[in-house]
Structures are given as structure tokens and as C-alpha cells.
Design a protein that fits this description.
Layout (H helix, E strand, L loop, with lengths): L13 H54 L1 E6 L5 E5 L10 E7 L2 E6 L4 E6 L3 E9 L5 E2 L10 E8 L3 E8 L3
Length: about 170
């Protein structure tokens, strides 16, 4: 008869546990870095989408005012003024003005609802130019002939320049 030998205990050694913990830590670090990159990308996309939405609202508002305009003026200070032909209530034609106020692009409507902020922040520059009969672009309007077009340029802090050309009614 053989003396009873204690049964050999099975389990993990300290080295095996340290290797497993190290691998788990590396997986966690790589996962965190990937998640952080996804979060940063999402935040950038949300910010870009907000700028895109604001620019679409701006250009849609300009197009709506152009469709109702009887005349347009632009000056060297960057103001763009529309004389609207369609005025609710049959009142005299109203003027609306687009311009830069600090870092906000604003549409002023003295006869309507007041100021409408089109870009909340980050508008560094705004320029409106009319196309003259000779094909040149300029801030001042030749009173003898109606402008053929309107070019609007907005420079934004995060995006750069946005430019749109509108054809005016003959």
C-alpha cells in the first residue's frame, strides 16, 4: 500500500495570472483609444453639421428674399440691402439688410420681426457683390442698369469661405 499522497492541486500560477492581466490591460487601453477617436469624430461631425445647417438656412433665406426683391444694393462696408416687392398688408415696400455684427451674421427687418441671426458665431467676414452689365463684380450698384447677379461670400472660422452666386430677375 502506498501512503496517501496529497492530490496535486490544479490552478493558475502567478506568472499565468500576470500575463492574463497584462493582456487584458492592453486590450482595455486599445479599446479606450478607439472609443476616444470615435467620440472626437462624432463631435467634429456634429459641429460641421451645425455649420452646414446654418449655411443652408442663410442661402435659403437669401434666395427667398431675392425672389421677392424689387431692387438690391450692396456697399463697401459689406451690407446687402433688398427692397422687397411683396409686403404683407399692402404696405410700402420694405427693406431688409444683411450684415456682420461682431462675429454674427444678421438679417435686419425693420418692418417685420426684427433681427434674425443667421450665423451665431464664427463669421469672420461677409461680402456681397453685384454683377454689373460689363461682367465685373463690385460692391457698388450701377443705378442705370439692374444687376445681373449677386455673389455672396462668407468666411467662417472653422470652415473657410462659403460662396454662392444668385441670378437676379431681369
Amino acid at each position: 500500500m502506498t501512503p496517501l499522497q496529497p492530490a496535486r492541486q490544479r490552478g493558475f500560477t502567478l506568472i499565468e495570472l500576470l500575463v492574463a492581466i497584462t493582456i487584458l490591460a492592453l486590450v482595455a487601453v486599445f479599446s479606450w483609444a478607439g472609443l476616444d477617436q470615435v467620440t472626437r469624430t462624432r463631435d467634429a461631425l456634429v459641429q460641421n453639421q451645425a455649420v452646414l445647417d446654418a449655411s443652408q438656412r442663410l442661402f435659403a433665406r437669401l434666395a427667398r428674399d431675392i425672389s421677392q426683391t424689387r431692387g438690391v444694393r450692396a456697399d463697401a462696408s459689406g451690407r446687402l440691402i433688398f427692397v422687397l416687392a411683396t409686403v404683407p398688408g399692402g404696405l410700402a415696400p420694405a427693406e431688409v439688410e444683411y450684415g456682420l455684427s461682431e462675429d454674427r451674421l444678421v438679417r435686419r427687418d425693420p418692418g417685420g420681426v426684427g433681427d434674425e441671426v443667421l450665423f451665431d458665431h464664427g463669421a469672420l467676414a461677409w461680402r456681397a457683390e453685384v454683377r454689373h452689365a460689363d461682367g465685373s463684380w463690385g460692391a457698388s450698384l450701377d443705378r442705370a442698369t439692374a444687376p445681373a447677379g449677386l455673389r455672396v461670400t462668407v468666411r467662417l472660422a472653422e470652415v473657410g469661405e462659403l460662396r454662392r452666386v444668385f441670378l437676379l430677375r431681369e
